[in-house]
Amino acid sequence: MxxxxxxxxxxxxxxxxxxxxEYMGIALTHHRGGYYMTRDPFGTAGDFxxxxxxxxxxxELIGLWCAVAWxxxxxxxxxxxVELGPGRGTLMADALRAARAVPAFQKAxxxxxxxxxxxxxxxxxxxxxxxxxxxxxxxxETFAEVPEGPMxxxxxxxxxxxxxxxxxxxxxxxxxxxxxxDPAGGFCFTLxxxxxxxxxxxxxxxxxxxxxxxxxxxxxxxxxxAAQGGAxxxxxxxxxxxxxxxxxxxxxxxxxxxxxxxxxxxxLTAHVDFEALADAAEMGGGRCFGPIAQGHFLMALGxxxxxxxxxxxxxxxxRREIMTAHHRLVHPDEMxxxxxxxxxxxxxxxxxxxxxxx
Length: 358
Known about the structure:
The protein is α/β, with parallel strands linked by helices. It has twelve helices and 16 strands. Helix content is about 35%, strand content about 25%. Strands 2, 3, 4, 5, 10, 14, 15 and 16 form an eight-stranded mixed beta sheet that branches. Strands 1, 6, 7, 8 and 9 form a five-stranded antiparallel beta sheet that branches. The longest helix is centred in the first third of the chain and has 17 residues, at about 55-70. The protein is globular.
């Protein structure tokens, strides 16, 4: 039995069944063996592959998006370029490399990475250490520690890993879904004994998901942008409108796994509710654009031209790789439709690139 499994069982024995959010939080980020705390899960040899690992085109376009956002802010002399959950640092590195095309922006940028995992922080420092940057990157474990001042923030596949709570509609009302220990010593779902939420009407058996941590964070981001200026770009997989459904999933070795089967050894995520995120950001004072499909967003930013520029200099093997990556990023049957982009900007800022039609 893994250390995380033992911790979960001890916690349940002491306090009773856990909420799904509590289970996710311990399984993913507990300092004694949480999934993200102990490994580098990214890339072809890991459990999943994110867009920056698929192609440099993704990060380069995000970097240029940030440069245009900086210009729309009035080109402040310094700006914090913040990434939430930076993985290996690949996206930040590609974005900073693209920033060289706008020298004044490159000079203004102060890179800052928000990362809870010591393992991944070490990888990020190695990745960014290969770059010749005007200003050295800084790190913090929480968004609250991001330095004061104007900010451009991006988060790719970050919010899907934040803990969710689940509520199930029964014939007696809405009851929170909990995790407990089954007779065999594993984990299973159960329901709270008393109605724990008063939600809207829905068919019996419906599941309603909420992520208080996500909503609190994006509201804080909206407040920060409204007070100090800037823009934020959130890219993730999920739904554009709030609805019902059980989207909790586990992945290991790039295949789906049992969400309760191997805590600490599998990635746990859930679809992002972009409508709820936008509402929270606007409650904080930000102005939202989108969400729009990732494929449409990248096409609007010029991924076709960037792909062609790379193809013109590529050999046959590289051409196949570029075309495969392009297809995966933008095609509706791949990441193009399920993944979405949401922009949050300070009041008074112009519509950011890629969102003009949203």
